[in-house]
Design a protein that fits this description.
With 367 residues, this protein is α/β, with parallel strands linked by helices. The chain has 13 helices and 13 strands. 36% of the residues lie in helices and 18% in strands. Strands 4, 5, 6, 7, 8, 9, 10, 11 and 12 form a 9-stranded mixed β-sheet that branches.
């Protein structure tokens, strides 16, 4: 069995409140809560084998103008290859393009699972949890808005909330206060500064945040500031998570050696695929660290991959980021349902999903 055909689309999907507008530190100035994004774009990949098996993959952060070049480059690397040769593919010429590569690699896993008649999670080590916990997400909001949205998430059944942060420490503190004042400890709470602060600013903010019992503070300092984040961990009671600091598996040992994080947040685009994230999970487990899957405003295909990774990896103990519930639609024929803050793992062969190609074409902006 070999790959015979490659097809790709960039699709755009609108998002709804309470996620939209998804305001982060790069959108607007402090006090502006309407400057965030109202839609998301994803690259979808469809691979077909000479035996007729189809695999799907998804990634984010792709410039639609690059699609023709990607089609040519990927076709040379993929057509005629054995989908079971994952390690060879992972270490191949596309290694320097982890986001692009991750979508194709995800599709290969889908094919392998279907060829074997097994869900991907069983191929990744077996099922350690049949339901995966997920965390709701929120952009930067005012004290009042943050409280109202947090209450809405509690009523929706979520147990964990992640908010964006990083524009201004006072703004972050007021947002956290608004959530705790409204819902108390009903939600595990985490904030993400997206590398927004220097060590001194982050430390001062962490000390003020200590009474609010954060689950963790995600990427308070720049990705390469591992010494500073290690010092931050020693100087505050607030746990520290890293996302931008986590690339491929080779980036993880320095984080562990410097004791720069309590939580690792890998994702398939930044790490290079499902196989890369599993390698990171093994390193984390050996070092007794917790992992949480990062989210790139994922549609159903990438959400399925997240579920299989988390289902097969003991170290993914916390709620994994998702904005899936905010999408106006999905490209799956049977979209996932979030019940009481969990998504059931699809246990049909491959990724366990069925893609609606009519929807793919409907939402495609480039193909």
């Amino acid at each position: 069995m070999v790959i015979e055909k490659l097809e790709m689309w960039v699709v755009e999907m609108k998002q709804r409140p309470p996620v939209a507008p998804y305001t982060h530190r790069g959108s607007g100035k402090p006090g502006d809560y309407q400057a965030g994004q109202w839609s998301t774009t994803s690259l979808l990949v469809k691979l077909t084998t000479d035996t007729g098996i189809v695999g799907w993959g998804e990634t984010v952060g792709v410039d639609p103008k690059e699609l023709p070049t990607m089609q040519e480059t990927w076709s040379k690397e993929l057509i005629g290859t054995d989908p079971f040769q994952l390690e060879e593919f992972y270490l191949g010429p596309l290694r320097k393009e982890p986001a692009f590569k991750s979508a194709a690699e995800m599709a290969l896993w889908d094919i392998i699972g279907k060829a074997c008649g097994q869900p991907v999670c069983r191929l990744l080590g077996g099922v350690v949890r049949e339901k995966v916990p997920v965390a709701a997400c929120m952009g930067i909001r005012s004290y009042e808005e943050a409280g109202k949205i947090a209450q809405q998430y509690v009523e929706m059944g979520f147990h964990t909330l992640k908010t964006k942060a990083g524009r201004d420490p006072e703004e972050d503190l007021e947002m956290v206060r608004g959530i705790r004042d409204r819902v108390g400890n009903a939600l595990q709470l985490r904030i993400d500064a997206n590398q927004g602060y220097s060590f001194d600013v982050a430390l001062a903010l962490c000390r003020r945040l200590e009474p609010y019992r954060l689950q963790y503070f995600e990427q308070p300092c720049p990705a390469d500031a591992l010494d500073e984040m290690a010092e931050l961990r020693r100087a505050t009671k607030v746990p520290i998570a890293v996302n931008e600091s986590v690339g491929d598996p080779e980036t993880v040992p320095p984080i562990i050696e410097k004791r720069a994080a309590d939580v690792l947040m890998p994702d398939t685009p930044q790490s290079g695929g499902v196989w890369a994230v599993k390698k990171i999970a093994h390193i984390a487990e050996a070092s007794r660290l917790t992992c949480v899957m990062h989210c790139g405003h994922d549609l159903g295909i990438k959400t399925a991959a997240m579920l299989h990774i988390a289902a097969s990896s003991p170290t993914f103990r916390y709620g994994n980021d998702t904005t899936y519930y905010s999408m106006e639609d999905d490209v799956l024929k049977h979209p996932f349902q979030i019940v009481d803050g969990f998504i059931e793992v699809p246990l049909s062969p491959g990724l366990g999903i069925e893609v609606d190609e009519e929807k793919v074409h409907r939402y495609a902006i480039v193909s």
